[in-house]
Amino acid sequence: MRKQLNFLLILIITAFILSNTSCSSSKEMGDLTEVEMQQTPVLEKALLWKISGNDLSSPSYLYGTIHIINDEDYFLPEGTLSAMEKAENIIFEIDMNKMTDLTSQMGLLKELFMKDNLSLKDLLSEEDYTLVQNHFQEMGLPIFMLERMKPMFLSIFGSGDFDIGGLQNGKMKSYEMEFFDMAQRTNKPVSGLETMEFQMSMFDSIPYTDQAKMLVETIKSSDTGSDQFKAMTDVYKSQDINAMVTMISDDESGMGDFDELLVDMRNKNWIPIMEEKMKAGPVFFAVGAGHLAGKNGVIPLLMRAGYTLTPVKSSAQVN
Question: Is the pTM of the predicted complex or chain greater than 0.85?
Answer without folding.
Answer: no
